[in-house]
Amino acid sequence: MVKKEGLFEVEKWLKREGEPLPKGKKRKKDYRDRKTELYVLDILTLETLYKFSKRGIIKALGGPVSRGKEAVIFHAIGAEEEELAIKMYKISTSNFHVMLDYIIGDPRFENIKRDRRSIVFAWARKEYKNLKRAFDAGVCVPEPIAYDKNVLIMEFIGKEEVAAPRLKDIPVEVLELDFDLEELFWRIISEIKTLYNRGRLVHADLSEFNILMKGYEDVDVSANKIEPVLIDMGQSLLLEHPNADAFLKRDVKNIVVFFNKLGLTCSEAEVMKIIKG
Ligand SMILES: Nc1ncnc2c1ncn2[C@@H]1O[C@H](COP(=O)(O)OP(=O)(O)OP(=O)(O)O)[C@@H](O)[C@H]1O
Ligand SMILES: [Mg+2]
């Protein structure tokens, strides 16, 4: 499936770095530099990917799915030919100070060093742990597979290298015509409730931007079979966190506002009661 950008390239990239050049000779830039520059994959990230390939977790690396401020996401193929998403956090993330604040407040991450690298590594580990907790509680999230340093590997939500669209990406007309909006709304609320009651977690960055509509890209799947999948759980926090309640309210508000704009008339207070009940 993924032919052009197989993992052999990761190997070549690394080899290139390791080979000393004759004195006075400058290495010529080639297509690999353009790619690493374009996707901000540093040598450390490539080495981590290479380790995953050695462990048999990734068979081939595909193309980029998304380029955010704090992370890039790539498509990949796993040992069983399954599709994977690889989230690689940038060490140079501008979000470093926010990450630091969240990690300091989390009892699972005491004794973490405060330098940039350690915090970004802890963040990838935190997202893995949050996804695992949510997944084990039965919440619809990508199944986390592995993490190491700044790299997180999880189930790919989508098909044949095309990621499922975010709730935000679905045209309003399609949402209004093809979906039972009331039902979709309560399904999302029920995921938040399961995350809260069984996972003991609050997502803390939930909105139409962090919900993927699994099955939407598949023409054979009817609208009522499309599943909302919650993603991007790096910042999610345990209920014991002093801000958990405020973040839950904000998550609920984002979802309520989104659906009320489409014609529903839900109240945040009522939804909060149902989640906590
Ligand atoms: N498991 C996945 N399967 C398929 N696509 C994914 C997966 N995880 C993330 N993506 C894609 O990558 C995008 C960004 O992922 P995510 O929200 O986790 O990262 P982010 O750091 O918030 O990036 P951004 O700043 O772009 O929002 C998602 O909107 C989605 O399109
Ligand atoms: Mg996001």
* Assigned CATH class of the largest domain: Alpha Beta
Helix content: 40-55%
**CA-atom Rg in angstroms:** 20 Å
The average pLDDT value, as a whole number, equals: 88
Small molecules bound in the structure, each named once: adenosine-5'-triphosphate, magnesium ion
How many structural domains does the protein architecture include? 2
The number of helical elements comes to 9
Count of strand segments: 11
How does CATH name the architecture of the largest domain?
Answer: 2-Layer Sandwich
Give the structural class: alpha+beta
The CATH homologous superfamily name of the largest domain equals Phosphorylase Kinase, domain 1
Could you say which overall geometry the principal axes of the C-alpha atoms support?
globular
Give the CA-CA distance, first to last residue: 47 Å
- Could you give the order of strands across the largest sheet? 1-2-3-5-4
The CATH topology of the largest domain is given as: Phosphorylase Kinase, domain 1
Main pleated-sheet profile: 5 strands, antiparallel
SSE topology string: HHHEEEHHEEEEHHEEEEHH
Provide the β-strand percentage band: 15-25%
**Segments where pLDDT lies below 50 for 5+ residues?**
none
Can you summarize this structure?
With 277 residues, the chain is α+β, with helices and mostly antiparallel strands. The chain has helices at residues 8-18, 31-39, 43-54, 96-104, 116-136, 172-178, 181-197, 244-261, 268-276; strands at 58-67, 71-78, 83-89, 144-148, 151-155, 158-159, 162-163, 201-202, 211-214, 227-230, 237-238.
